[in-house]
Design goal:
mainly alpha, Aminoglycoside 3'-phosphotransferase, Chain: A, domain 2, two-stranded antiparallel ribbon, 9 helices, 58% helix, globular, EcKL, Kinase-like_dom_sf, CHK kinase-like domain-containing protein
Protein backbone atom coordinates (compact mmCIF):
# COMPACT_ATOMS: atom_id res chain seq x y z
CA UNK A 1 0.00 0.00 0.00
CA UNK A 2 1.09 3.61 -0.64
CA UNK A 3 2.31 5.71 2.29
CA UNK A 4 1.32 9.33 2.92
CA UNK A 5 3.89 10.99 0.67
CA UNK A 6 3.06 8.71 -2.27
CA UNK A 7 -0.68 9.15 -1.75
CA UNK A 8 -0.32 12.94 -1.80
CA UNK A 9 1.77 12.91 -4.95
CA UNK A 10 -0.61 10.58 -6.81
CA UNK A 11 -3.72 12.50 -5.76
CA UNK A 12 -2.27 15.77 -7.05
CA UNK A 13 -1.68 14.19 -10.45
CA UNK A 14 -5.06 12.45 -10.40
CA UNK A 15 -6.70 15.84 -9.87
CA UNK A 16 -5.03 17.14 -13.05
CA UNK A 17 -6.12 14.04 -14.95
CA UNK A 18 -9.73 14.70 -13.95
CA UNK A 19 -9.62 18.48 -14.42
CA UNK A 20 -8.24 18.51 -17.96
CA UNK A 21 -11.25 16.84 -19.68
CA UNK A 22 -13.57 19.21 -17.80
CA UNK A 23 -11.54 22.15 -19.08
CA UNK A 24 -11.77 20.82 -22.63
CA UNK A 25 -15.55 20.34 -22.27
CA UNK A 26 -15.95 23.94 -21.08
CA UNK A 27 -13.59 25.66 -23.51
CA UNK A 28 -14.16 23.53 -26.62
CA UNK A 29 -17.52 21.80 -26.17
CA UNK A 30 -17.91 20.74 -29.79
CA UNK A 31 -14.52 19.03 -29.84
CA UNK A 32 -15.34 17.30 -26.57
CA UNK A 33 -18.75 16.08 -27.73
CA UNK A 34 -17.49 14.84 -31.09
CA UNK A 35 -14.00 13.55 -30.34
CA UNK A 36 -14.07 12.49 -26.67
CA UNK A 37 -17.48 11.80 -25.17
CA UNK A 38 -18.61 9.10 -27.68
CA UNK A 39 -15.63 6.91 -26.77
CA UNK A 40 -16.26 6.72 -23.03
CA UNK A 41 -19.75 5.25 -22.82
CA UNK A 42 -20.86 3.31 -19.76
CA UNK A 43 -20.59 -0.44 -20.11
CA UNK A 44 -21.01 -3.41 -17.81
CA UNK A 45 -17.65 -4.99 -16.99
CA UNK A 46 -19.50 -8.01 -15.56
CA UNK A 47 -21.43 -8.71 -18.75
CA UNK A 48 -19.25 -11.73 -19.52
CA UNK A 49 -20.06 -13.43 -16.20
CA UNK A 50 -22.84 -15.99 -15.88
CA UNK A 51 -25.31 -15.97 -13.00
CA UNK A 52 -23.47 -18.83 -11.29
CA UNK A 53 -20.19 -16.89 -11.40
CA UNK A 54 -21.82 -13.70 -10.14
CA UNK A 55 -23.34 -15.60 -7.23
CA UNK A 56 -19.97 -17.15 -6.37
CA UNK A 57 -18.33 -13.71 -6.30
CA UNK A 58 -21.00 -12.43 -3.92
CA UNK A 59 -20.75 -15.53 -1.73
CA UNK A 60 -16.97 -15.21 -1.47
CA UNK A 61 -17.25 -11.50 -0.66
CA UNK A 62 -19.79 -12.03 2.11
CA UNK A 63 -17.74 -14.87 3.59
CA UNK A 64 -14.73 -12.56 3.61
CA UNK A 65 -16.75 -9.86 5.40
CA UNK A 66 -18.19 -12.35 7.89
CA UNK A 67 -14.71 -13.54 8.88
CA UNK A 68 -13.41 -9.95 9.13
CA UNK A 69 -16.30 -8.79 11.35
CA UNK A 70 -16.81 -11.89 13.52
CA UNK A 71 -20.06 -12.66 11.70
CA UNK A 72 -21.64 -9.30 12.53
CA UNK A 73 -24.95 -9.41 10.64
CA UNK A 74 -25.16 -5.63 10.30
CA UNK A 75 -21.92 -5.54 8.29
CA UNK A 76 -22.59 -8.68 6.27
CA UNK A 77 -26.03 -7.43 5.27
CA UNK A 78 -24.68 -3.93 4.74
CA UNK A 79 -22.03 -5.17 2.31
CA UNK A 80 -24.61 -7.40 0.61
CA UNK A 81 -26.69 -4.30 -0.04
CA UNK A 82 -23.69 -2.27 -1.21
CA UNK A 83 -22.58 -5.04 -3.56
CA UNK A 84 -26.03 -5.31 -5.08
CA UNK A 85 -26.06 -1.55 -5.57
CA UNK A 86 -22.73 -1.95 -7.35
CA UNK A 87 -24.27 -4.59 -9.63
CA UNK A 88 -27.22 -2.28 -10.40
CA UNK A 89 -24.79 0.49 -11.20
CA UNK A 90 -22.84 -1.73 -13.57
CA UNK A 91 -26.06 -2.91 -15.22
CA UNK A 92 -27.29 0.66 -15.77
CA UNK A 93 -27.43 2.37 -19.15
CA UNK A 94 -25.35 5.37 -20.14
CA UNK A 95 -27.43 8.21 -18.74
CA UNK A 96 -24.65 10.29 -17.19
CA UNK A 97 -25.50 13.97 -17.43
CA UNK A 98 -22.83 16.65 -17.39
CA UNK A 99 -22.28 18.27 -14.03
CA UNK A 100 -19.38 19.93 -12.24
CA UNK A 101 -17.67 16.61 -11.51
CA UNK A 102 -18.27 14.48 -14.61
CA UNK A 103 -15.08 13.68 -16.48
CA UNK A 104 -13.08 10.81 -17.94
CA UNK A 105 -12.87 8.34 -15.07
CA UNK A 106 -10.22 5.62 -15.07
CA UNK A 107 -12.37 3.32 -12.89
CA UNK A 108 -9.44 1.01 -12.08
CA UNK A 109 -6.87 3.21 -10.33
CA UNK A 110 -5.14 0.85 -7.96
CA UNK A 111 -1.52 -0.09 -7.29
CA UNK A 112 -0.97 -2.22 -10.40
CA UNK A 113 -2.14 0.54 -12.74
CA UNK A 114 0.03 3.33 -11.34
CA UNK A 115 3.68 3.74 -12.39
CA UNK A 116 6.03 6.09 -10.56
CA UNK A 117 9.36 7.64 -11.50
CA UNK A 118 11.74 8.73 -8.73
CA UNK A 119 14.28 11.56 -8.63
CA UNK A 120 17.86 11.35 -7.39
CA UNK A 121 16.65 11.79 -3.81
CA UNK A 122 14.33 8.81 -4.05
CA UNK A 123 11.18 10.94 -4.15
CA UNK A 124 8.40 10.41 -6.71
CA UNK A 125 8.62 13.00 -9.48
CA UNK A 126 6.36 11.62 -12.21
CA UNK A 127 3.37 9.32 -12.39
CA UNK A 128 1.72 7.44 -15.24
CA UNK A 129 -1.71 5.84 -15.11
CA UNK A 130 -2.02 2.74 -17.29
CA UNK A 131 -4.68 0.19 -18.31
CA UNK A 132 -7.58 2.30 -19.56
CA UNK A 133 -9.69 -0.61 -20.81
CA UNK A 134 -12.65 0.19 -18.51
CA UNK A 135 -12.39 4.00 -18.55
CA UNK A 136 -15.81 5.64 -18.72
CA UNK A 137 -17.53 9.00 -18.36
CA UNK A 138 -18.72 9.67 -14.83
CA UNK A 139 -17.98 11.25 -11.48
CA UNK A 140 -14.36 11.84 -10.56
CA UNK A 141 -15.25 10.69 -7.01
CA UNK A 142 -15.17 7.07 -8.22
CA UNK A 143 -11.41 7.22 -8.83
CA UNK A 144 -10.67 9.19 -5.67
CA UNK A 145 -12.49 6.85 -3.29
CA UNK A 146 -11.40 3.62 -4.97
CA UNK A 147 -7.75 4.66 -5.00
CA UNK A 148 -7.76 5.60 -1.34
CA UNK A 149 -9.55 2.49 -0.07
CA UNK A 150 -7.81 0.03 -2.38
CA UNK A 151 -4.25 1.31 -2.41
CA UNK A 152 -3.34 3.54 0.56
CA UNK A 153 -2.12 2.30 3.95
CA UNK A 154 -4.88 1.95 6.54
CA UNK A 155 -2.96 4.04 9.07
CA UNK A 156 -2.70 6.88 6.57
CA UNK A 157 -6.46 6.79 5.94
CA UNK A 158 -7.07 6.72 9.67
CA UNK A 159 -4.98 9.82 10.37
CA UNK A 160 -4.90 11.83 7.14
CA UNK A 161 -8.08 11.10 5.17
CA UNK A 162 -9.50 14.63 5.42
CA UNK A 163 -6.10 16.07 4.52
CA UNK A 164 -5.87 13.88 1.42
CA UNK A 165 -9.39 14.74 0.26
CA UNK A 166 -8.69 18.44 0.75
CA UNK A 167 -5.38 18.15 -1.11
CA UNK A 168 -7.08 16.54 -4.10
CA UNK A 169 -9.78 19.22 -4.13
CA UNK A 170 -7.29 22.09 -4.02
CA UNK A 171 -5.13 20.52 -6.74
CA UNK A 172 -8.25 20.08 -8.88
CA UNK A 173 -9.14 23.75 -8.48
CA UNK A 174 -5.55 24.84 -9.15
CA UNK A 175 -5.55 23.00 -12.45
CA UNK A 176 -8.88 24.50 -13.53
CA UNK A 177 -7.73 27.98 -12.48
CA UNK A 178 -4.50 27.61 -14.44
CA UNK A 179 -6.65 27.04 -17.55
CA UNK A 180 -8.90 30.00 -16.70
CA UNK A 181 -11.94 27.85 -16.00
CA UNK A 182 -14.35 29.57 -13.54
CA UNK A 183 -14.36 27.70 -10.24
CA UNK A 184 -16.80 29.73 -8.15
CA UNK A 185 -19.36 26.90 -8.18
CA UNK A 186 -16.85 24.28 -7.02
CA UNK A 187 -17.44 24.65 -3.31
CA UNK A 188 -15.72 22.27 -0.91
CA UNK A 189 -19.09 21.36 0.59
CA UNK A 190 -20.40 20.44 -2.87
CA UNK A 191 -17.30 18.40 -3.57
CA UNK A 192 -17.71 16.47 -0.31
CA UNK A 193 -21.35 15.77 -1.18
CA UNK A 194 -20.23 14.30 -4.50
CA UNK A 195 -17.65 12.11 -2.75
CA UNK A 196 -20.24 10.82 -0.28
CA UNK A 197 -22.75 10.20 -3.07
CA UNK A 198 -20.41 7.92 -5.03
CA UNK A 199 -18.41 6.42 -2.15
CA UNK A 200 -20.62 3.38 -1.35
CA UNK A 201 -20.15 2.01 -4.88
CA UNK A 202 -16.38 2.24 -4.57
CA UNK A 203 -16.31 0.82 -1.04
CA UNK A 204 -18.00 -2.26 -2.49
CA UNK A 205 -15.49 -2.30 -5.36
CA UNK A 206 -12.53 -2.03 -2.98
CA UNK A 207 -13.88 -4.89 -0.83
CA UNK A 208 -14.36 -6.97 -3.98
CA UNK A 209 -10.85 -6.19 -5.25
CA UNK A 210 -8.89 -6.73 -2.03
CA UNK A 211 -8.62 -10.48 -2.72
CA UNK A 212 -6.92 -9.66 -6.02
CA UNK A 213 -4.74 -6.81 -4.77
CA UNK A 214 -3.42 -8.82 -1.79
CA UNK A 215 -3.62 -12.27 -3.37
CA UNK A 216 -1.10 -14.88 -2.29
CA UNK A 217 1.23 -15.20 -5.29
CA UNK A 218 1.08 -18.98 -5.05
CA UNK A 219 -2.61 -18.82 -5.99
CA UNK A 220 -1.95 -16.97 -9.25
CA UNK A 221 -1.73 -19.10 -12.43
CA UNK A 222 1.52 -18.89 -14.38
CA UNK A 223 -0.26 -17.37 -17.39
CA UNK A 224 -2.17 -14.86 -15.26
CA UNK A 225 -3.37 -12.07 -17.55
CA UNK A 226 -6.74 -10.93 -16.28
CA UNK A 227 -9.32 -11.50 -13.57
CA UNK A 228 -9.51 -15.19 -12.68
CA UNK A 229 -12.41 -15.81 -10.30
CA UNK A 230 -10.78 -18.92 -8.86
CA UNK A 231 -8.06 -16.65 -7.44
CA UNK A 232 -10.69 -14.88 -5.37
CA UNK A 233 -12.07 -18.09 -3.86
CA UNK A 234 -8.58 -19.33 -3.04
CA UNK A 235 -7.80 -16.16 -1.09
CA UNK A 236 -10.87 -16.01 1.14
CA UNK A 237 -9.69 -16.06 4.75
CA UNK A 238 -6.08 -15.03 4.17
CA UNK A 239 -4.88 -13.02 7.17
CA UNK A 240 -3.74 -9.89 5.32
CA UNK A 241 -6.93 -9.83 3.26
CA UNK A 242 -9.14 -10.18 6.31
CA UNK A 243 -7.21 -7.41 8.09
CA UNK A 244 -7.60 -5.05 5.13
CA UNK A 245 -11.28 -5.97 4.77
CA UNK A 246 -11.82 -5.09 8.42
CA UNK A 247 -9.97 -1.80 7.94
CA UNK A 248 -12.01 -0.84 4.87
CA UNK A 249 -15.29 -1.43 6.69
CA UNK A 250 -14.13 0.38 9.82
CA UNK A 251 -12.82 3.38 7.90
CA UNK A 252 -15.82 3.56 5.60
CA UNK A 253 -18.05 3.66 8.65
CA UNK A 254 -15.79 6.24 10.34
CA UNK A 255 -16.16 8.60 7.38
CA UNK A 256 -19.88 7.90 6.91
CA UNK A 257 -19.43 6.05 3.62
CA UNK A 258 -20.51 2.58 4.58
CA UNK A 259 -24.28 3.06 4.43
CA UNK A 260 -24.42 6.64 3.23
CA UNK A 261 -26.34 5.66 0.12
Amino acid sequence: MFDLSHAKFILKEMAKYHALPIALRVKRPQVFEEDVRPYFRHFNIDSGLGEKEKKQVETDLLEQVAIATNNADCYVEGVRELYRDLQKYRDSVDEVKDNLYTTIVHYDLWINNIMLKYDDNGLPCKVKFVDFQISQYGSLAHDVVFFLFSSVESGVLDQHFDELISLYYQSFLNCLNSLKIPTERYSYVGFLKEVHKQAPIEIATALFMVKIILADHSTLPEDYKDLDLSVMSKNVGKENIIRRTSDIIRLAEKYNFFLSH
